[in-house]
Amino acid sequence: MFELELTYSLLLVLCLIAACGFEFVNGFHDTANAVATVIYTNSLKPWVAVVWSGICNAAGVFLGGITVAMGIVNLLPVESLVDQNISHSVAMVMALLLSAISWNLLTWYFGIPCSSSHTLIGSILGVGLAYSLLPGVNEAAVNWGKAQEIGASLLISPLFGFSLTIILMFVIRNLTKKTSFGDSLFKEPKKNQPPPWGIRIVLILTCTAVSGFHGSNDGQKGVGLIMLILIGIVPIHFALNPGSNPSALLQPLNKIETVIQSIDPSPLSAPDKSKLDSTKIMSARLIADIGTLTSVKSIPEKERFLVRKDIMVLNSNIKSLVDKSETRISESDKKVLSDNMKKVRSITDYSPKWVIVLIAASLGLGTMIGWKRIVKTIGEKIGKEHLTYAQGASAELVAATTIGLSTGLGLPVSTTHVLSSGIAGSMVASKGIKNLQPETIRNILIAWLLTLPVVMLMSGTLFLIFRSVF
Question: What pTM does this model have?
Answer without folding.
Answer: 0.86
